[in-house]
Structure formats: structure tokens, C-alpha cells
Amino acid sequence: METLDNIGSLPHYSLLALVWTSFSIAFLFVGLRTVIRARHADRLTADDYWIFLALATLLTLCILETIQLRSLYYITAVIAGVIPIGDKLISTTEDYLRFEFPIIILFWTVLWCVKAGFLALYYKLFRDLALYRRVWYALATFTFLAYVGCLITLCLSCGHISNFFAFAQCGKPEHIWASNLSVYYSTVIDVFTDLCIMAMPIRLIYNVKISRKQKLGLVCVFGLCFVMIAFAIIRAKQVLVQQYFVNLTLLMIWSTLAASISVVVGSLPALKILVTNRSTAKRSQYHLSSARRRAQSGNNSSRVKAMALGSISSDKKSITGRRLDTSDSQEEILQPDSGRFVLVKHEVVSWPVPSRKRRLQDLTNDCVQ
After folding, report:
1. Phi and psi for 103 in degrees, rounded to 5?
2. Distance between CA atoms of 127 and 233, rounded to whole angstroms?
3. Cα 53 vs. chain centroid, distance in angstroms?
4. Is 129 helix (H, G, I), strand (E, B) or coil?
5. Cα 164 to Cα 218: distance, rounded to the nearest angstrom
6. How many CA atoms does the CB half-sphere of 271 hold within 13 Å?
7. Transmembrane ranges (predicted)?
8. In whole angstroms, what is the distance from residue 54 CA to residue 37 CA?
9. From 154's CA, which of 42, 196, 208, 368 has a CA 20 to 30 Å away?
């Protein structure tokens, strides 16, 4: 068995370590995301639960891959000519196929759970915008139908579904053609949905009045799907080979990495707050010092006992720089020292209702934190 463990592109225990290291990294990012959300949000939202489902699916995927490793290395040794073909090959291959079918379904489920997480995040941005909301519903429906299409093409790629679990039942030319078609479809539709998800908020980011640095940060957050696209393409190249024998070791490596990276990418938008907290703290300190200086200046001017009413401007601004709506009233009071009447002007301040664009800007900042 020691000889079999060293067959293939990566030794048995190295591949096992890679599988569980990938899952551990994904688990670490999801845990960090959960801690941040628990500290900065009142409750978990739909995008959090989709990432939890993706992590649970990834865990199931890694468990099945671990069980499948022994049969994988035996088949690899037979293909390499290290051990002769025997009766054990049939039972070992059927054991491998018994796990490979659910592993493929779990792999696509992880990717689509992450897509659903991004769509749930977008819904917070678009629910108050009629046009964007309709586009969101169309994209969410298309993404769901694309996932169903992946399952259908997989089930039909080998004739009857029972052929997946039998030895040498999917080797006919029509089955190989259908299997390649399933891989092409699932990869293309995966890349296309990722591109649609990335492109959806571009116009919104362009119209929101925020700094160029903040816009660049949002583009980076929503452009993380490019990483998922790269791994999906590399994995497809491991499956679409000219020969009949696929490198099973590389297929497992890239499948595990693609699924784990997708969970990490889905967790990164919530981690943006770790980067923005420092700059936000600096801006808050600056505004606080400015407010203190203005308050001190106001206290010095209030020491004057009397001033002309005409010099009091009704165009006031708050500490934050927003224009205030004021309504003025005057009262006559008796000044005790001189016995004269003095007009005193009162201001009733009302805060303006934030505009729709202002609410959208605040919501954009909240969604990426």
C-alpha cells in the first residue's frame, strides 16, 4: 500500500492534507465573517445563511473525497501500470464512482450557494430601486435554472442514471460526448452567471456619490468572482482531456481548491470592515476635533449680552455640515439691570429628511461592511 500512496501527481497523505487545509482556511474565513457580523450587525441576514450552507456542503464534499482516496489511488496505479488489472479493479472502480456522482453535485452546490450569497447581498441594495429589483429577480431566476441545468446534464450524460455506478458503462462515444457537453455547459454557465453577478452593481457604483477610493474598494469586492472563474476554468481543463483517462488526482485537487476558494471569496465582502475601520477612525477623530473647535467658538460668542437681530442669520449649519431648516420667533423680555425690553430670537430647528440618493449611499456603505 505504501507504493500506491506515492502514485499520481501528489502522494496520498499530501492530497489528504491539501483537502483538509483548504477546508480549514474556508472555515476560518467564515468564522471570522460571523464574528464581525455578530459585533457590527443586529442579526445575521440571508447572505450569511447561504455562506453557512456553502461551508456545510464543502464539509460534506471533503468527507466524501477522503473516503474516496483509497479507490482513487488504486485506479491511478492500475492506469500507470504499477499493478496488474484484476477482479479487484471492478469493485474498486464502482466504489470510486459511488462517491464521484454526489461529489460533483456537492461541488456545484457549493458554487451556487456562494452565488446566492452575493445575490442576497445585492438585494439589500436593490430592493428600493424598481428597475434594479426587476433585474435582480430575473438574474436570481436565471441562476437557479442554470443550477438545475447542471444537474440535468450530469444525470443525462451517461444514459440511465444507474450507469454512473457500474463498471465501464459510460465509455461509449455518445456517453463521452454527453459527458464533455455537461462539463462545457456547467463551466460556461458558471462563468456567465459570475460575470452577470459582477456586472449588476456597476452602474450603481458609478452613480453613488462616494470617493474614488471607496468606489475602487466596491469594485474589488464585487470583482472577487474573477478568482472563482479562474479556478473553474482550470478545473474544466483537467476534465476535458483528449485521452479517455482523466488525471483523477489533479481533478480532486482543483475541485477542492475551486470549492474552498469560492467559500473564501463569498466571505470576503463582510471582512471589508477590517480595512475600512482604520480610515473611518481617522475621519471620526478629525470631525470630532472640528466640532469641539466650533463649539468653543460658539461659547465665546455667546458671552455678548446683546446684538442686533438683523445680524443673526437664519442660514445655519450643523456640525456635520448639513443645512438646517429653521423657523424663527421673537419674544420681549425685561432686562433686569437696566429695566429695558430686549428682543430675544428663538430658532426651532428641524432636520431634513435624507434624500433617496443619500439613503442609497448609506446603504451601499453598510452592505460592504
Report:
1. -65, -40
2. 33
3. 13
4. coil
5. 44
6. 13
7. 12-36, 48-67, 101-123, 135-162, 182-204, 216-236, 248-275
8. 17
9. 196
Q: Does residue 82 sit in helix, strand or coil?
A: coil
Measured distance CA(99)–CA(93) in Å, rounded: 10
Amino acid at 283: R
Buried/exposed 179-212: b ≥16 CB within 10 Å, e otherwise: beebbebbbebbbebbebbbebbeebbeebeeee
One-character DSSP codes across 203-236 = HHHHHS---HHHHHHHHHHHTTHHHHHHHHHHHH
Beta bridge partners of 325: 350
Least confident interval from 113-127, 137-151, 313-327: 313-327
Residue closest to 218 by CA, chosen among 269, 281, 275: 269
Please tell me whether the overall predicted TM-score, pTM, comes out greater than 0.85 for this model. Answer: no
* Type of residue at 334: L
Q: What single-letter amino acid sits at 67?
A: I
Q: What is the DSSP letter of 323?
A: B
Averaged pLDDT for residues 208-223: 71
Q: How many residues does the chain have?
A: 369
Do residues 141 and 79 lie in contact, with contact meaning Cβ atoms separated by under 8 Å? no
CB 191 within 8 A of CB 143: no
Residue keyed to cell 455678548 = 304
- pLDDT at 64 (0 to 100): 95
The single-letter code of the amino acid at 220 is C
